Amino acid sequence: MKAEILTRPVEISLVKGKYFLLRIAAIVAAIVSILAIIGGCLAIASNSLDVYAVPLLFTLAVGFTILSIFVYRLQRHWQFSLTILIAAALISAIVIGFLPEYLQGLKINGIIHRSLISGLLLLAIAIPGSCYSLFYLLGVTPRAFDVSRYPLFIFFSAAAFTAYGLIIFHIIDNGASQLNLALFTKPFLNQTKIVEQWYNGWPVFSSMIVKQVGILNHIRGTLMLMGLTSLISLPIGVSVGIVMHEYAGPRVAGLLHFSTTALRSISGIILAVTAISLLSLPDKGTFWYNLFHGYGTDVNGILQVGRSSFLFASLFISLLVIPLIAKATQEGLSSLPVEIKEGSLAVGASKEHTLFHVQLPWSTPNIVTGLMLGCAEAAGALTIFFLIAGTGQFGTGPLNETTSLAYLIFDCRFGPVMGDPIQDMKTYQYTAALVLLVITLGLTVAAMIMKKNLAKRYKGA
Amino acid sequence: MKIRQSIWSIKTVFVILAFIPVLALILIAVNLVLHSTLAISTLGTGLFSNSFSPSGESGVTARDMHYGMLPALWGTFLVTLISILIAFPVSLTLAILANDFSTGLLNSIIRWITGVLAGIPPIIYALMGSTFFLWFFWQKFAGQGLSAANLPPPNMLPSDESCTLLGGLMLGLLLIPFMTPLLDDALRGVPNSFKEASLSLGATRWHTLRSVTIPLAQPGIMSSLLLGILTALGESIIVAYAIGFSAKTLPSPLFDVLERTAPLTSTIAGLAGGGFSRSSVIGPVGQSVASVMGLLLLLTAFALLGISLYLQRRLKKRLTQ
Predict the structure, then answer these.
(1) Three-state secondary structure string covering B252-298
(2) Which end of chain A, N or C, is less packed with Cβ atoms under 10 Å?
(3) CB contact under 8 A, B163 and A322
């Protein structure tokens, strides 16, 4: 059909008057389609607005009929897709008109409101309709054919970005309302303290509950996880990158590539299962048990052994970060122009000297970019340790019990099931989410800016 | 001679450090295999029955243990299917828009936004799941006019802000910024000369996209689809939040996405133990079943990853010819 249109440009110029009318009809159809798209979005957003669905669908049918009549006058054949759209609009208008407000059946859990069906039908008919009316509006040219695809693209991307906008707005809205400075300066505490009092010359012990609300220890835990993870994963990741780029043959490089990719792609819960079975290896009370599980002292000065230590958790998180750093190192090494490397070798530097004084300094910005992404990953990586973390009220050193902002959010919902006394923090979960979002998005944006600057480097003659 | 020796030692250090990931992967696989033998030898074919209710297992014979993986497998299938159905079209659209259908500014805006969104950790989506439920699902699937609708009790939504569809939706939102750069790379890898040849022969940009770019980039698109499926299979925080930790049986009409059918990952989390004191009541066979499920996920991941890497290599070969 398109080909037929394109082969008759002379006829179109002859019938300029007819073409003007077609353009008017296309404008009408476009306006109706835009109204219908807005109506569809509103019907999905709010239940009560689906009363407009049936009139909008009839209007769509009328608009497309006018459009196809003028197309017929110009081209002397019925535009098949427009006819289908008209039929679909009419049929769905009739169907929606006869639907009850709630649909049920087949024993599914829940009943479906009519507005969902009518909203989706409106969108499904109006978006192709707007594409066609744009095509006829812009004069039936190849260029118009390209431009008429934009409504489709724009709708999908707008829908996706609206969802993310809602998420970020909701987090900022709820988090900022609970924000105060005291939250950042106090650690979270909820423990029972044994107080010794002297009464008639005899010591009397009574218990007192020490409660304090704050996210200081969770923030420090997040920073601790980031620091330990980068310490562990930096040497390993860089050497994986160097070996893959410099020393390994295709087979070994393939093995390393497969294993690093696999570590990132396999489910984090598998790593968690491995971590849990490793935790149960040492006997209770031994040095290794305390090292794996993490220990700290509570307000009474008694040793408390936790679920897992920061060191243990960051060992497993670094398995996720090593591939990022390895990839970044490899990219940096392969972006070095060959003449610089060969120049270094030609003036007599050994291969090792070239590696440490030319190749690695050149790829340092790449490695730092990878490390930043890895830190963001470590701040947000919860899958590995959400079964083995704690509240962090017994200190945040490398050997204390793991905690982080991400875990705090998880804990606010499942803490009572897991035996964490975290009920008081439930009001502040959005604040924790906001701080976590600021940390991870800040690191990601910084890494992206660095990557953009890297693209401007000297790329060789 | 001395110099050569020192190079050898540095190289050794690098090689030893570089093989730590390989060792870790082997350790993970061996650990899963060792721990799953107990469940396989005790339960046998009972592992694939349609009833799942973990217990303490004290004085319970193997016949009375209910550790069927069928509900979890079906839940994994449903969640992955929903999330891919949401994420794949949207991210393909975004990738096409960033590549062929936009000029400088819009192009870089889309790449920037997807890059920034990729940094959002999964727990944020999980936290927002219940809010989305209240905003959207409660309106559309249960309705505020519930009393007016006069419903029988089985047709009620689960009351704790969770259902399979919600898990799939939030997982889809996680997948979009993950898959868009991969698809973008696949489409950008097609040489410009091919596209220009098509355009110069009079094809529109849409026809070029449909008949030149996408067929040439097809292995890349398939491989990013597989990586997306892999991520959807493995994500566990979001599904634990939005669906729950276990499903007793298959949903009664199989496609009932408003029921809670927990996938493998969150079922593993419920069974595995650790500090999760709820699972301290689960016996050794139950914890071994977690390893069997983990092994299943690991094998699936290896298979999908192998296919994906093969497709990437084929794409590279196709484009360099």
Answers:
(1) CCCCCCCCCCCCHHHHHHHHHCCCCHHHHHCCHHHHHHHHHHHHHHH
(2) C
(3) no
pLDDT of residue A51: 82
Work out the end-to-end distance of chain B between its first and last CA atoms, rounded to an integer number of angstroms.
44
Which of A140, A161, A266 should we substitute to test contact with B (largest number of B Cβ atoms within 10 Å)? A266
Instruction: Concatenate the DSSP letters of all residues of B156-204 into one string.
Output: ---TTS--HHHHHHHHHHHHHHHHHHHHHHHHHTS-HHHHHHHHHTT--
Which amino acid is residue A115, in one-letter code? S
**What would the two tokens of residue B44 be?**
């046998």
Chain A hits for B122, Cβ within 8 Å = 380, 382-383
pTM of the model: 0.88
Distance CA B260, CA B256 (A): 9
B254/chain A closest Cα distance in angstroms: 9
Is the pLDDT at B79 greater than 60? The verdict is yes
Contact residues, B window 128-187, toward A, CB-based 8 Å cutoff: 128, 131, 139-146, 149, 151, 154-158, 163, 173, 176
CB of A36 within 8 A of CB of A125? yes
Q: Which domains does chain B have, with CATH numbers?
A: 2-320 (1.10.3720.10)
Residue B147 has pLDDT above 70, yes or no: no
DSSP for residue A194: E
Q: Closest approach of chain A CAs to the CA of B225, in angstroms?
A: 13
Bridge-based pairing state of the strands A303-305 and B52-53:
unpaired
Give the ipTM: 0.87
Q: Do B156 and A441 touch (CB under 8 A)?
A: no
Q: Say if residues A392 and A323 touch (Cβ distance below 8 Å).
A: no
Tokens of A242: 């160097």
Six-digit token string for A240 = 């994986």
Type and span of the H or E element at A189: strand A189-199
Whole-angstrom distance between the N-terminal and C-terminal Cα of chain A?
50
Tokens of A198: 């002297």
What is the overall mean pLDDT for chain A? 84
Residue B159 has pLDDT above 80, yes or no: no
Residue B4: per-residue pLDDT: 55
* pLDDT over threshold 80, residue B98: yes
Q: Over the stretch A329-344, which tens digit does the pLDDT of each residue have? A: 998 998 888 888 889 9
Q: Which of B184, B182, B159, B36 is nearest to B107 (CA)?
A: B184
